[in-house]
Design goal:
about 250 residues; alpha/beta; 7-stranded mixed beta sheet; two-stranded antiparallel sheet; 9 helices; globular
Length: about 250
């Protein structure tokens, strides 16, 4: 394990759930420390298997590829990666292949763990990946900083974008990159209808179209500078680099 990572068994006072016989670095998660915010109703094993199958057949999607390319353009050799809501960990595997040293994945639910473990093992990278259940916005002190912090299709699922992005930026030594849906009449109408459907179905999960400029401003207020922006019709990407030391 890289020297700047605290062993998970020493983080906080929460019990750890470890698969029997497995290496603590790639299977340990913190249990009972975060609110799933309805994610367990939306993202089940079937969805996880779909992501795994698509990645095996097609590789990264276009938005994820843009994220990886932005990070790689700054150099990833021996870098540590922290991905919030990384799902099956496909972005992490691509960065590890390009020379990153270690990747930490944070989730609110453990539904992706089986498929993530399988594709990491198939890539021969299991010993360089750690998976944990923890909400970085709620308990930022429980997470170690990393050179690179990534949030792909995550901010739109979290109600308090300021708290989330502030915590993410504070944990980024060098780079922060996140994706989000555009905020316009069409996207807001779609998410309003979507959330109404969730309410009718009794689901607590919600989606959000946060103001893009305000999200960037949060990161920039924590010493980051926006260097890259991609404005897609469905997903937009912002890449930021640190200009002042993290607090």
């Amino acid at each position: 394990m890289p020297a700047n990572l605290t062993p998970l068994a020493q983080v906080g006072d929460h019990p750890l759930r470890v698969n029997p016989g497995a290496d603590v670095r790639d299977t340990s998660v913190m249990s009972g420390c975060c609110d799933p915010r309805g994610c367990n109703d939306m993202f089940g094993p079937r969805f996880s298997r779909h992501l795994r199958s698509r990645y095996r057949k097609r590789g990264l999607d276009k938005t994820a590829t843009r994220i990886v390319d932005f990070v790689a353009s700054h150099g990833v050799d021996r870098a540590t990666v922290l991905e919030v809501g990384g799902g099956i960990g496909d972005i992490q595997l691509e960065l590890l292949r390009r020379g990153a040293e270690h990747a930490m994945n944070l989730e609110l639910v453990d539904v992706y763990d089986t498929d993530a473990t399988q594709i990491a093992a198939a890539a021969g990278l299991s010993d360089r990946v750690t998976r944990r259940l923890v909400d970085i916005a709620a308990t930022p002190e429980a997470v170690e900083p990393a050179d690179i912090v990534i949030l792909h299709r995550v901010v739109c699922c979290y109600p308090d974008y300021e708290r989330l992005l502030a915590a993410a930026a504070d944990h980024a030594r060098h780079l922060l990159v996140f994706s989000h849906p555009p905020r316009n009449v069409v996207s807001r109408a779609f998410m309003t209808a979507q959330n109404a459907t969730f309410r009718l179905l009794g689901k607590s999960f919600r989606t959000f179209t946060h103001p893009p400029a305000a999200m960037v401003a949060v990161a920039e207020s924590r010493g980051m500078n926006a260097e890259y922006t991609h404005r897609g019709r469905v997903w937009q990407v912002v890449g930021l680099a640190r200009t002042t030391p993290a607090a």
